DNA sequence: GTCTATAAATCGATAGAC
DNA sequence: GTCTATCGATTTATAGAC
């Protein structure tokens, strides 16, 4: 039998895993963890039911893997942002633009965002293995720092920075959910969201 | 046997139904429809498993009933608001205050809000029987009208009113979810959210 | 009306052929 | 590596005693 040297078995295996993860992400986002059936994921991926278990041990494992990827992705985006040479307020603006774009175009980064927030807020999910949303390297806290810098420079409204980030994230999460579910067709003008950072008076007196 | 005339059977039945619905609301909000077990609801209500089916035919029926109540409640709140003698921007302010309060105090009105939005955005729920989020008497569209009035009076920023309502609702939904899940302990300053409506310049030139 | 016990259905996970 | 068929556990829903 001729061995297919062009595409090794490990390569096939890697591709399948990514394919399954990608399909699972969509299904989890649309139905939630509990309602998502393994058969749904298999159908979405275009493979048989049993093959799922050749690549993953359980539904929980797939979910955990996705949440881990989502947290990593979010952290990466924000670290990139912190390194960029931009004013704090423009970093937030860039973040909104990036998220809105990926959500609007139905890219995985957009799904990741929804998944991560859902994993945080739902009590029904198995996230034992996942690091929790507090500590030094967490996306949430990293943004608080950017907000504080913006406040210090007078670009961002005063007040509890954590509350600002909460409101900011909440709005994005809600909008992303509406978009993913098809309730809205397009994401709104990002500047609407940016107004939550707006200081009381535009002119610096 | 002495009949208990003071509390008729229909009264008992009505109380039990409300008790079950109230418990189901909490469980659905915390776990989602699919993950919520009938046994969870029964335990929360302090009754036996089997008794659930004496008052409701199925889990779907309970959920549908709750979503119907939630939509009615929301519509009622907004209708009340429209009737109030307030400036449009203050109507929105009053709405935020009311929702934040009920969510913060874990009242059913707060849960209703989360449930209604979740029912809209999740593809995994049985809402065939439920009227959908478009049409004349829908909470969403009723708010668009208030926004338009505020824009006409210069109290609210220009732009697509529907987008404003979407962003507004999204933020509230996200915040309510965070609160209900225990991720945040208190709701943020409502004025952060109100800045979404803020026109570009405060002074009317 | 309320409960316990049981049936029926669903779904995650496994076994084994190709 | 991939599939189909089956097991086993969980959960919805029903039956029947009190």
Number of domains of chain A: 1
Helical/strand content category of chain A: mainly alpha
Query: Ranges of chain A with pLDDT <50 over ≥5 residues?
Result: none
Give a short account of the largest sheet of chain A: none
Biggest interface reads: A-B, 45 and 43 residues
Q: Any idea what the radius of gyration of chain A is?
A: 20 Å
Overall shape of chain A = elongated
Structure notes:
The model of chain A has no long low-confidence stretch (mean pLDDT 88). The first copy, chain A, has one domain (2-202): Tetracycline Repressor, domain 2, CATH 1.10.357. In chain A, helix 1 (9-31) crosses helix 4 (59-83). The radius of gyration of chain A is 20 Å and the shape is elongated. The first copy, chain A, is an all-alpha fold. Chain A is built from nine helices and no strands. The N and C termini of chain A lie far apart (81 Å). Chains A and B meet through helix 6 and helix 8 of A and helix 6 and helix 8 of B. The structure holds a DNA duplex (18 and 18 nucleotides).
Topology of helices and strands:
The structure is a homodimer of 205-residue chains.
Chain A (H helix, E strand, L loop, with lengths): L8 H23 L6 H8 L6 H4 L3 H25 L4 H17 L3 H14 L17 H14 L8 H21 L8 H5 L11
Chain A binds a DNA duplex (18 and 18 nucleotides) through helix 1 and helix 3.
